[in-house]
Structures are given as structure tokens and as C-alpha cells.
Amino acid sequence: MSSSSRSGLVLAFTVGLALPLLAGCTDRAQGEDEVVEACKNTCPLQFECGFADEDNTLEKCLEGCPDFLRAQRKECEAYFDLKVCLGQVSCQEYSQYQEALDRPIGTFSDAPEYPCQAEVVAQARQCYGVEDP
After folding, report:
1. For the whole model, what pTM was predicted?
2. The domain containing residue 111 runs over which residues?
């Protein structure tokens, strides 16, 4: 094999190894964008709808949310899916969601329909091992 053929083979091999790594970086960047987007949607909703803690501010929420959400997502993807869903509801729907959560554990799936119900049930099952009675 000539040196130019060998160089071409080495280059092709190197590029072939690097492409999956670059795709992984893209996936991570998209994952980060999803986390930031979920925070940008859910934090303001809590304040606009009157469900934020008294000692919290929108700025604190937006600042702390990404790290918290990343950690939660790492532990259980269903938690992240619920946050994405909640970032897309209205204040009235968020209120219905909050009312449903006030029900005793184990009865949330038989409650009247409420926003993000499928995500709540999935989170309870996948993240906390809760089973329906």
C-alpha cells in the first residue's frame, strides 16, 4: 500500500470515528436546549398562575431550574416529560393539574381528566414505583 493510500485510509478511519462523537455533541446540545426551553416555559407559568413559593422569584427559578431539571432528568426521564407538558398549559389547566395532585397518592389515575395526566401517571410509575390499586 502506498503512503498516500495509507494516509487516505487513516483519514477515512479518523473521520469515521469522529462523526459519531460529533453527533453525540449535537444530541447533548439539543438536550440542553430542551432543558432550557422547559425551564423558560414552566418558571413563568408558576408565577403568572400564582403557584410559586413566596420566597422564590422568577429570576431564581430560571437560574436554578436547568441544573435541577438536568439532575431530575438523569434520574428519571418521565420527570422531564412532565415538565415539558406543564410548560404548554394555560393557568386554568395548571390549576386543574394542581387540584388533581392534591388527591391522595394512588388515586391520581382515576381522577377526572386533567392536563398532563398521562405524564403524571408515567412519572409516578417510572420514577417512584407507584402502581395503581
Report:
1. 0.70
2. 3-128
